[in-house]
Design a protein that fits this description.
mainly alpha
């Protein structure tokens, strides 16, 4: 398709995605730069470029690209979510919370957005709101190990041992091995395995 019409950015973006998946990051970034020269408003190109920058530990570049993608498509939850994650990594927690709230507003069914917002609220000791966000995340995706784990820990801190144990068991049985180990240890400490 690129030989037929080199003026269409979508072909370059698709090529970049394939190159990135095969580990050819420099070639992928080159294809994205070509796409952005053709269409400087291509949010997907910025998002993929941000993911490549993260994989190469180029965090300022990743932040810039995710911000561009989120600004170009402010109602697309995955772009807002990626931007919020980068803001957290940059230590900009207040703006990260704004973007996490925008994420769940853009797509109330985006479980990862609720989990992210729950974590930010928990850091601010807004535990009731954090519990509500984590509960929404596990309602939307009952097998969401990280959300079940974090919800379990919050419930334990609030004294809801039965609720905590139920969510920690779910996390311990999940498909994320690190979360499963942490959940099993938390259950042992609670004396409820």
């Amino acid at each position: 398709a690129l030989d037929l019409n080199p003026d269409l950015p979508g072909g370059y973006v698709n090529l970049a995605s394939l190159l990135a998946q095969s580990g050819q990051m420099d070639s992928a970034e080159s294809a994205l730069q070509t796409a952005l020269k053709i269409d400087p408003y291509d949010a997907l190109a910025y998002d993929i470029s941000g993911r490549i920058a993260v994989s190469q530990a180029k965090l300022p570049e990743a932040l810039y690209n995710f911000k561009k993608a989120a600004r170009l498509r402010p109602s697309y939850a995955p772009y807002l979510y990626n931007y919020a994650l980068m803001l957290i990594r940059s230590g900009e927690l207040e703006e990260a919370q704004v973007q996490a709230q925008a994420t769940v507003h853009a797509d109330p069914n985006f479980a990862e957005g609720h989990e992210l917002l729950g974590g930010l609220l928990a850091k601010k000791q807004q535990l009731e709101q954090a519990v509500a966000e984590y509960q929404q995340a596990v309602t939307l995706n009952p097998d969401f190990s990280r959300a079940n784990f974090d919800l379990g820990l919050l419930l334990a801190a609030k004294g809801d041992t039965a609720g905590a144990a139920a969510h920690l068991r779910k996390a311990a049985a999940g498909n994320d091995p690190d979360i499963a180990r942490q959940a099993a240890r938390a259950l042992q400490r609670m004396g409820t395995q």
